[in-house]
Design brief:
By secondary structure, the protein is mostly beta strands. The chain has one domain. Strands 1-2 form a two-stranded antiparallel ribbon. It has a two-stranded antiparallel sheet with strand order 3-4.
Amino acid sequence: MRDDHPLAGEWLPVCNSAAVPDGKARGFVVADERIVVWRDWCAQLSLGHVTGDQIVCPYHG
């Protein structure tokens, strides 16, 4: 999403929590942007990175 997009930097409801099992990730498209939603209380995946088609946790690898 471009930095000047009206929704940039906003929290957006994209799914119900039941749609994403704990410890799993699920992809969605919002405003033509591919995003990942996850549920894991011990990892801050926003600090991680993507290698191939995998999300790499900054703490657990």
